[in-house]
């Protein structure tokens, strides 16, 4: 065998090695992407869903104030009666995924309806979360994801759900404990204790909802 044949064979062998290396890297990258998608499937789906645009309601200053007063009064009454409840107010992120998980409705937020719903333990709709979009109740008995983080034992399923939904969505979550009537507000990884007195509660909710996206569409 001549030297030229040896050189040619060596060159072919090097090319085969390069091709095999490229194939191996391609397979590894493909496997990595598949594993990444499988592991973070929920987060990826949530990211694209919550960025889906929706029509925003234009609100007057009076409408916003009336809603806050109504919400504060409702939470205070639920607290007084120690009626467990979880109310989620959608903010900038689209929450269609969890709206679809419950009973879809389209009714104005008014105290009598909310109190009747959560107090009626014979109704399957009293369990789960109520989701509010702008000034309308759009879903009842919605399933929310439970946080996987360790939370104090004094908190129940509603509080764990409040933590869980805030891990994925920009929203406002108010929880009333059926154990002691405490009203809490969930934001990021914290639960904040709120007053059960309507006047103080109005001021606290006003401060909380300053970030509400509906203010950007406020009609002057």
**Structural category:** alpha+beta
The residue fraction in helices comes out at 40-55%
Count of DSSP-assigned helices: 7
Instruction: Tell me, briefly, the overall form.
Output: elongated
The CATH C-level name of the largest domain is Alpha Beta
Q: How many structural domains?
A: 2
Q: What's the CATH superfamily of the largest domain, by name?
A: DNA integrity scanning protein, DisA, N-terminal domain
Rg computed from alpha carbons, rounded to a whole number of angstroms: 26 Å
Q: In words, what does this structure look like?
A:
The longest helix has 37 residues, at 3-39. The chain has two domains: 1-51; 61-212, YojJ-like (1 (3-Layer(aba) Sandwich), CATH 3.40.1700.10. It is α+β, with helices and mostly antiparallel strands and 220 residues long. The protein has a seven-stranded mixed sheet, sandwiched between helices. The protein contains seven helices and nine strands. The radius of gyration is 26 Å and the shape is elongated.
Provide keyphrases for this structure:
220 residues; YojJ-like (1; 2 domains; seven-stranded mixed β-sheet; two-stranded parallel sheet; 9 strands; 46% helix
